[in-house]
Every structure is written in C-alpha cells, then in structure tokens.
Amino acid sequence: MKLKYILILLTLAGGICSLTAREVIPFSEGWLFKRGPFAQDPAEVVNQWNGKWEIVNLPHTWNAKDMQVKAASFYEGVGYYKKQRFFGEELKDKRIFLRFEGVGSNTEVYVNSRLVGTHKGGYSAFAFEIGTALVFGSENEIMVKADNTACPDVIPVNHNLFGVYGGIYRPVWLITTEQNNITVTDCASPGIYITQKNVSKQSADITVKVKLDNGSLTPANLILENTLYTQEGKKVSSHRLPLELTPQGTQIYTSNFKLIKPHLWQGRKDPYLYRIVSRLIANKEIIDEVIQPLGVRKFEIIAGKGFYLNGEKYPMYGVTRHQDWWELGSALTRKEHDFDLAQIMDIGATTVRFAHYQQSDYLYSRCDSLGLVIWAEIPFVNRVTGHEAENAQTQLRELIRQSFNHPSIYIWGLHNEVYKPHEYTSGLTQALHDLAKTEDPDRYTIAVNGYGYAEHPVNQHTDIQGMNRYFGWYERKIQDIESWVTGLEEKYPWQKLMLTEYGADANIEHQTEYLGDALNWGKPFYPETFQTKTHEYQWGVISKHPYIIASYLWNMFDFAVPMWSRGGIPARNLKGLITFDRKIKKDSYFWYKANWSKEPVLYLTQRRNTDRERKQTSITVYSNIGPPQIYLNGNKLTGIRQGYTNVHYILDDITLTEGKNLIKAVVTHNEQEHTDEIEWQYASEKRRSADSHESKKEHAGW
User: Fold this and answer.
1) Which of 95, 317, 336, 377 could be cross-linked to 332 through a Cys-Cys bond (beta carbons 3.0 to 4.6 Å apart)?
2) What is the per-residue burial (b if ≥16 Cβ within 10 Å, else e) of 100-139?
C-alpha cells in the first residue's frame, strides 16, 4: 500500500492545482537474505554466494535468538540483503531516494552493483539518492551489506552493555520527488527545522528553516510556502516566499510567525500539537510537501528546585527503555513500540530516558502526542578506544537533525559511563556539547557518570550532570542514597543534577523473605523481593529531594546483554520492572504506579513469594486511594503503619497458619469497593536468604 503526501487544494487562494507532491513507498517486503560468516577463499565465497537465499520482510535481524539465550555466543559479522525492483520510464525525470531508518550497524548500499553510499552506526537513519544508478524500464537490483561487528571507530565500540542487533531492523522507504525538493539527504532529516522563542501564554515566536535542493542544471523560480495549522486543521497563518533556487548546493530559507495566545504543549496533561506544512510550489503546482509537528513549549531547569514546563513545576517521574524484545531483538513494528509506551503511560511516568542510543522516530512522534518529556542520546557508552571521536560527532549530528522538531525531546545525551583516558573523554565530551549547542542552542545536554561526585574529571562539560547510583546493588547499602544526595546538596547547591539510573535486578523465580541492606550481585540469587525493597526505600528518598531534578529508574523492561551471565538467566539484564517477554509486571511496577499514577491502585506485594519461609511475617500493600483494610483468612488485622510514602502500608508480625493463607486488601473509594487478594502457603520454617555482602568499592559502570 502506498503512503503518499496527497494535496487536495481546491480551497487555497491563487488557483493552485492539486498534485501528488512526493511519493513515499514502503520498501520492506520481499527481500532476499544471506547471513555469514563468509569464507576467505574466493572459490568458496562464490559457492556460498550462489547458494540458497532466505526470503525475509523488514524489519529483520539475524540475532533475534542467539543474542538472547547464551552469553557471549552470537553471530557478529556480515549479512547481505538484496531486492529486485522495476523502475518505469516515467521516473526518468524524477529524483529517487532510499531511506533506511536503522541498520545494525555498518552499511554499504549498492544499486546494480554500483556503490551509492555507506553509513556507520546502528541507530540513526540515513538516505541515499539512487536515481543515477538505476536503469529505467528495467529490473534493478538493490543490495545491502550490513555488519554488526564491533569496531574501534564506531560507537558503541563493543557489545558489553547491550547488543547491537545485526540486520535491517527498521523500515526502509523509497522516496520519489521532483527535481526541486525539500532536501531528503540532510542527515536523513525532514529538511525542516522549527525553533521557538519567547514562549508564554500570551505569545510565541516561531521560526521555520527549510533546506531546499535543486537537482537539475538550471535555476528554478519557485515559491516556498510555510503554513501553520491547529491540531484541528484550521489554518492559523501562512508565509509565502518567492525565490530562485540555484542548483549549486543546498539553500536555506526561513519564515517567521508570531503566535498570539498559543495553545501550549503541556506534557501529559495537554499534549497539544500544531502542524507546520512546508510546500514547494512551481507554476502554481505543489511539487513537494513535508509536514512537521509543533508543540509550543518552554523547558527550564532550576538547580535545587526542579524542572519547569511553561513556567510550571513539572514532576519528572522517569523510566528508561531499551528497545529490544524477547525473540524479536530490535526488529520491531509499531505494535511493539505502542505496547511499550502503553506500559510507560500506565505506570504514570512523565519522562523517559531512551537509552543508550537513538530509537525509532515513530516512538519519538508518539511521545509528542502522548505528552511524555523525553531524553534522546547517542551510543557513546562503556568504553573508549581513541578512534571514535569523528563517528560520535556524526551520530550526534544525525540524532539532532533527524529529531529536531519533536517537542517531547528536552535533552541530548552525550555519553554514559565513559572514562579512561580521562583527558580524551573529557575533550570529546566538550566537543560533543559544543556540537549540540551549534546544531540546537535551545535544548539541554547531559553526560552520565557512574561515579557519585561532581569533581570527576569527565564531568562538568554539559548543562546537566547525570549520575548512575546503584546503592545496595553494586555498592554500599540501599540507604546510602540519602547521604549521597544530601552531601551533594550541601557541597554543590548550584549543580543541576539528575539521578539517571538506579535500581536492582530481579529474577521472578527467585524469592525470599530474608533480606539485608545490600546484595552480592556476583552470586546467582537475584530475589525479586530485594528489587522491591530497593525501589521502595530509594523512591522514598528521591521524592523528598527536589535537588534531584529528574530520576530515571533502570529499567522499564528486562533486556538482552549478550556478554553477561547473571542471576540465573544468561544474556539478560534483569533490572526491568517488566519481564523481557512483557508478560509479567514485577512488584516494583505497582510501587511506582501507586506513587505516580492518577489511576486507582490497590496492590498486595510478594504475590510470587508463595512458599513462605517464616510463620511470623509482614504484609505490604500499595494503595493510592486511602488506607486499606487487611484480612488474613477472613480475619481483619489491625496495626497497619505507613511506610516510605503516603501510598505505602505495612503490617508487621503477622502470624500465618499452616497450609493455605488468604490475604485480602479492601478500600472503598468514591463509593466503589476495590479489592486485591493473594494466597501464601506455609509449611515450616526455612531460609532462602540472599547473600548480603556489601561492596565498599564505588561502582563506576562497566
């Protein structure tokens, strides 16, 4: 099915004809695929090459299973894709492009055996013009070489924190335009850059910068029209600029608008979106059109106080998200992205750190319309080699240009837990910050450190200092988060600080009532109850410290880490609030939903810890609709106390009976009764205790 920008312009002044402007066609079905490794001997290569090819549709990855089931045992190398396509004679005077949304991770694209372009990096889009390599009126062969081998000059330089899935794992589009167009190949951006200044409830100044490209050999007399529409489709204002477009290089033109009493983009409360429609007109016919969102908003961060959206204090309830799914890898459709966003919305999150790389543009667009305030970043993580500086800057430039118009994005992430050699990393971070400010002066930048002190040599080169702290897991005790943040408040009151990762792993098959204040992550026992304890205490601290501008729990979903083997499940990071297959929400999920969401929550914890170890135990309930009544085997219990926040209720020293024990929580709220029930079994005293070894060494990352 063709997706076209089709203009019906009968009502527009000037007698402009209706015309299909640009054609954007999915190019994702009917590919042939062959995975390596490929032999070194030329004769053997020929035999391999002529062998059987697999028919695949995109998105596709060759690592959907092997990267997820066994540590350090996955295919890292080359795969080839090819596709036949007939291009008719009627396309001779058109311009034709291929746009790839994401390929893991280094790519070469050939048309009829001619190289049309290369790209380094597994997460940003790229576009190549292919018309001069085509034979019109004939079948043409497009071939793509993808290689996910880690290399020192392309970030990420290894697979240690997450795996780079090989293949064409995001959609591909065939784009056809007239000779004169809104540029397609400016880092695969929309070719339009919308900035906003002086935003208030009274007015806002909007500037639309458009990059135009003439693919012919002669100048063209054109009109560039930028029109601002409301979300409902009503025209607000329009600006027309007559111009002569030279074929000598991309040209830039701007339009300025002043919005009076704008409808502001107010996050989840009211994610209102205007539209900017940029049209290129020749002889009263629209020859190109691109539509971009406009959310009128102002972000402001004040040290020690918090995050402000349009002048109002805005709660930053943050989660993080890796994009991969069990048995799909990163080869996701909109269905999977929508599912993940639905869980993020359901828990009550207001902000998301999309880590540790550029994610789907569709995902960012959905955040625009959902009102999530988001963080986008590049995959400069884990290690440096001294050879990645150019590529890191290229990937940042691509991220910014491709994502520039998303109103939901408030910050660009420049690195995560990258250290020695400190001088090199420090200098590169500073260069990335300068690049971000040149490309986009109006958004914040952030660099993330695994050390807990501001004076670390790779810090202080971005607008915001991010720190990852895993108290009780990788270092010290759960409760040490309090002294850490208090110490920073006292010593660096001027600092804009975010807690950018925190949490603990949880294998839902591992349960115990016997928990200390630290856990030895080097041992294989990762009880869910310890994760719950960590989040209960640490969110209680975070919520009382506005010095932490935003916090981002790690992670919304379990994800693949192909080099790890921990917690009883190989190749898995288990810090998610939801299991990798998206089927089970851990107790911690409901802790945050009770604290963040406006939806009624009544939830009894430890519903998987059914084989009880102690006759004398405790019951914990999360309720954001008032104090619950608790029943054990039909008997009402007394002595409930409040825990770390006002949704946290605990009953201590409850005595179980032998055999089945039914626990029930009841709250009547707004004349409606809410209940939750769980069942525990008790046979005899036993002990499945976690190793409570406390690491005195500060965790700095991997």
Assistant:
1) 336
2) bbbbbbbbbbbbeeeebbebbbbbbbbbbbbbebbebeee
Q: Token pair for residue 322?
A: 């890796």
Q: How many CB atoms lie within 10 A of CB 447?
A: 28
Q: Is 219 left (phi over 0), alpha (psi -120 to 50) or beta?
A: beta
Burial 554-580 (b: 16+ CB within 10 A, else e): bbbbbbbbbbbebbebbbbbbbbbbbb
Q: What is the pLDDT of residue 127?
A: 98
pLDDT at 702: 61
**Cα–Cα dist 319/592, whole Å:** 10
Residue 68: other Cβ atoms inside 10 A = 25
Peptide bond into 156 cis (omega under 30): yes
- Return the pLDDT at 14: 34
Find residue 299's DSSP bridge partners: 309
Output DSSP code: residue 334: H
Identify whether 377 is a catalytic site residue.
Answer: no
Q: Which residues of 370-408 are buried (b: 16+ CB within 10 A; e: fewer)?
A: bbbbbbbbbbbbbbbeeebbebbbbbbbbbbbbbbbbbb
Reduced 3-state DSSP string for 120-149: ECCCCCEEEECHHHCCCCEEEEEEEEEECC
Half-sphere exposure of 222 (CA within 13 A, CB side): 26
pTM of the model: 0.96
On whether the CB atoms of residues 283 and 393 are closer than 8 A, the answer is no
Identify the H or E element spanning 257: strand 251-260
**How many residues in the chain?**
702
Largest CA distance in the chain: 90
**Opening angle at CA 491, ends 488 and 492, nearest 5:** 75
DSSP 8-state class, residue 379 = -
Q: Which helix (H) or strand (E) is 289 found in, with range?
A: strand 285-294
Whole-angstrom distance, CA of residue 630 vs CA of residue 634: 9
β-sheet bridge partners, residue 654: 617
Annotated active-site residue in 336, 417, 475, 501: 417
Burial class (CB in 10 A: 0-12, 13-18, 19+), 90: exposed
Question: What pLDDT does 20 receive?
Answer: 55
Per-block average pLDDT, block size 10, for the chain (702 residues)?
35 38 95 91 74 95 96 96 97 97 97 97 98 97 97 97 97 98 98 98 98 96 98 97 96 97 98 98 97 98 97 98 98 98 98 97 98 98 96 98 98 96 96 98 96 88 96 97 96 96 98 96 96 98 98 98 95 98 98 98 98 97 98 97 98 97 97 97 94 84 67
Label residues 33-58 b or e (16+ Cβ within 10 Å = b): bbbbeeeeeeeeeeeeeeeeeeebeb
Least Cα distance to 36 among 62, 14, 9, 4 occurs for: 62
SS3 content of the chain, % helix, strand, coil (to 5): 15, 40, 45
Q: What tokens were used for 462?
A: 């971005």
pLDDT of residue 1: 38
> How far is 337 from 62, CA to CA, in rounded Å?
20
